[in-house]
């Protein structure tokens, strides 16, 4: 059942422990899906249920401690984690609070991701009670966790490569899947089925839009309006394999493409090229942003950035933005996602997934066609 | 694009405002997917990205205020919400904090869901800053929100009825979809495709297991072990339509069923019958629990409850548990989910979805066969 070897998890744990030593932390408390999965290997869609909280404690010395509802004990026992403490959950009076507080009380200073991109997946009232009962000082450790997760191992990259290939294969079937007259919602359904057929385990994310020569936004679910001649159809999928995501889009013109649409597509394609020319170890995210921004001729859409990290979440740290000075390192997996406003209320977006190396980045997706493909 | 009429949202808002008056709250702050969607109609899978926070402020007097990243302005403008304040996100220095704090500073006492089943989907550090900048007193309003969401409107019930029907139709194809020798992961894939073909928009949740005469847990992703004669295969799906979930499972024996498996299945089926006999307006969740527990002959599996609410989340408040004194009301949609331990490390679970009325509940799922179906 394990997605990775025990050695892989030991490496992750050891990196966390070194970082804790440097930061003067006695332990780290994690309560979110991605972080629990990353350090324990505990993978389940049961996170969809908000009822029960789940915790993982990483001590600076010693082994990780899973503090979880009984319903998860069987699955957790199949991970590399050996120290599993459970309680009968849900419990309206004490839903893991005393158990967790008791474990944490052995520590003074405990890291908790509280910074950008972090959530607290437990009731805030219960967090306050844990704080009070354990007498622990909680400090933000978001950067510490991000610094570890940002560089993917060979085993992670292997999975990301496969899921990006699966997405590419599904997009290759566009002419078979999409046609004029098809309601957008049916185009989505056909594409989800194709992604599963090609080998995706799940399609947690599929957004898109269609409109004459461009579209209004890039995060909507589909309506039932039929695709029509002159529409640009964009589909953006975060499909997953073993819990790792691809995240890229493709644009297609239905019937014919306007000159404005063709030109916008070309500009975005060239911006991605500029991104790929710049994306290598040593450059910063801001460098990458500026290279793409220059090709786009300035101006920025509502998306607010030109790509991001990718892995066990659809979007991960860092951001390809002018404010982000993160230095690229070999093993980082990123999306390049330039977007532009074509005219008032019309935009276009383009996206590829790449692996950062010392030299030119390695494309994980099959590069989009250089000209806007037309579905006739 | 709207999933519901403006009148439906006005009713939800008005219920919230009455409850705020009673509770002495000046406003409510929401930051989680289900709550934003429930009160605004803002539906997107973009919540998969942890990067940006999203806020909705419900004042006791006046209209709701969406405080959101620019990337969502187009989609939000298609909801009933008219007061939309945006900022360029992500912003590492001030990701909506000042904008939100400024709006909240008009209020003294602000409700925030902080109790059981609640999460804080924003960085805790930013929450502290909002608290400090706005000088607002935050108090838990989980119960207030739950009391509104727990009773489904006719429009919500209509969607829930359809998605439960879609799930039932997909399960009806079991003999076509599953067979001995098929890796469990391929059974999952076939079933996901069938759910989409039958009309599900998404399959955010599919868990299950297979094992000789029973299975070890009920929250795992599938492995590649082929189904074999004597296995009991269980699939439990939370498929969705317009963001509303069905949540039920079915068991199938592969080739043949042992007497122990048949008997466990019968016990669970009878426990569900007992639940349906008891489930009507005026009874409590605890009554429902005890009726099912008696049929099961005592003893409880690691699941910790015998069902729960259902709607825009896979599991919603309340819990069918001995500790839950929630009184059933017409319009509540629930799962009945008895589970039992068959032998050491082997369990079985059974699940139906029902609508509570003044009289007998209405089954939303097509009732499971009274005897364990065998796939030959």
Give structural notes.
Two copies of one chain form a homodimer. The first copy, chain A, has two domains: 144 residues, 3-Layer(aba) Sandwich (Creatine Amidinohydrolase, Chain A, domain 1), CATH 3.40.350; 222 residues, Creatine Amidinohydrolase. In chain A, 34% of the residues lie in helices and 23% in strands. Chain A is built from eleven helices and 18 strands. The first copy, chain A, has a six-stranded mixed sheet with strand order 4-3-2-1-5-6, sandwiched between helices. In chain A, strands 7, 8, 9, 10 and 18 form a five-stranded mixed sheet that branches. In chain A, a hairpin with a 2-residue loop joins strand 14 and strand 15. The two termini of chain A are 45 Å apart.
